[in-house]
## 1
Amino acid sequence: MDRLWAPWRKAYIRPEGARKKGCIFCRIAKSRSDRREHVLRRTRHAFAVLNLYPYTNGHILILPTRHVKTIDALSDKERLDWLALAVQMEKALHKAFKPHGFNLGVNLGRAAGAGIPGHLHLHLVPRWKGDANFMSVTAGVRVMSESLDSVYQALMRVLNGAR
């Protein structure tokens, strides 16, 4: 049997130290370690962060800063800020990685597939023709071509106007 070795992913299945209690997204919202947390941008009412378990390279989560479960729970200002940040991230992904398309999704509640149902988040997933290969179909495995740090650096260059 062939094996695909990815020892750097050990941190996801056996993290050092105890898991922190409470909402991971609220912890990231309060953190000031944007690089460590892979936070790409903060606005008054929202923030964008790389997904630690990406579907494709560049998979971004856009979250309201306030802990809410539904879109309806956002004020008009929060909702507009949240969606405006999604547009900004879409433009940055276009510039940095030139995807052929995007998937956008919001899973409301565990039954809808939300891994963290208590804190609303929008998935912005860049897609390329042929990005799903036999590994996904036959083995249920995604092959990621870049590390989170590499993707973060590329997007930060774009967001900071270096490209």
## 2
Amino acid sequence: MVDLHILPATPEMLPELVSLEETCFSAPWTRKMLEAELTGNPFAHFLVALRQDRSGRGVESAVLGYHCFWIVFDELRLMNLAVRGAMRRQGVGRALVMEACRLGVEQAATRAILEVRASNDAARSLYKQMGFIHVGTRPQYYTQPMEDALLMEMNPLVLPDCRQSERAHDSGGNLLLPDSL
């Protein structure tokens, strides 16, 4: 059986983050942009999801997904969420967003916002299940291809009810979640 560990990203993970970014997005952030978020933006938080083998063999080093988000005063702003293709719909994205919401609440954020491609049904469904609602549209926000962004918000920001009773942290404070989420 396998658990997810949600940890802060490190600069050493940058090559893998760039690769995942390029795989997941038609207009990906550049290495320089990712590095700036990871090391230079005081509002940015960058989490990765790694796989922990319960048999005791340790944490696999491959990044299954990442989430870059900002906490600016009372606002949690979800920026980029990327999950390896083979790991989609297995709870990785949900775990990353849950942890972002937890950190936002912990740091006194009162609302959360995000933009999502209008055609990204899977992401829209995830956010809706977690309590985000569609509050507006940004016409032709995305390029490659040109597409509207849907603005979604959770106001007030609350921890999504995603089996919170199963949430556990290891001795280092890392989030552990079963694969079944």
## 3
Amino acid sequence: MTHATARSFSPVTGDAPRVLILGSMPGQASLNAAQYYAHPRNAFWPIAMAALHKCPLDFSAAHNMAYSERLKSLTQSGIALWDVLSECHRPGSLDSRIDRASEIVNPITDWIQSAPEIKKICFNGKTAAAIFKRHFGANNWNTLNSAHIEFTTLPSTSPAFASMTLVDKAQAWQPAFLQ
């Protein structure tokens, strides 16, 4: 079976990020649009914009806001955005379809050493956390923990994770945006 190669985006960092949100790998809608969380039913932007702007959870309002404005809202709030994987083979958008043998990770621990303000790493879903642990191992995990970096695995904002309501996801994500 031929797998499509997916390549992640550069990190969105701002000047002095305190929180790093890590996804696994952008889905096809995001890759096609060259934007993080571009799928219209992905809850990331509605949750983030509602938390940062203290407004109602609204998919259309969040996705209608210019992408550059959404990124600016994050970076001005001290939030960086990236993915654990820089490249992998995956047909479609589901994380479960990622070919583990093809996974290439982003240089996250190196980047964190250049961003000493980072105090929290939030994983967008269990898969992002599992990939991080698998590739960075206990030594890097412990090194980052000793640097007083808190790790939090949050519910996936993907529309494929439908067992949680939008409101429940938003409540779980609040600490990531309001540090």
## 4
Amino acid sequence: MPRATNAPASRERRKRVLDSAKGYRGRRSKLFRYAKDATMKGKYWSYRDRKTRKRNFRMLWIARVNAAARAHGLTYSRFMEGIKAAGIDLDRKVLADLAVTEETAFQGIVAKAVDALKEKSKAA
């Protein structure tokens, strides 16, 4: 008795892999064997780099806030300490955006942070 291969399911599976490898170059987009490896590796990279993207953006925001704080005579850690003492609840993303686009608003936040740091040093 011949072996049943379930050809429709196999063809569908191969078609799905080749469709997902559509933009790849050369045999990686044409041949199932190479397309399978390429798509598996692509999925691995996309999963890994979604984490890396978050890390990179956090570093970018910290660098921008640090540069803007130093332009106003504070360090990054001192500025963040002052924000926490002032009760301002803004994350790094928003602070970095304000530092780049809204200089006057960021200057107001710096002023409040400096006042809060002075109050904190008087209390201690």
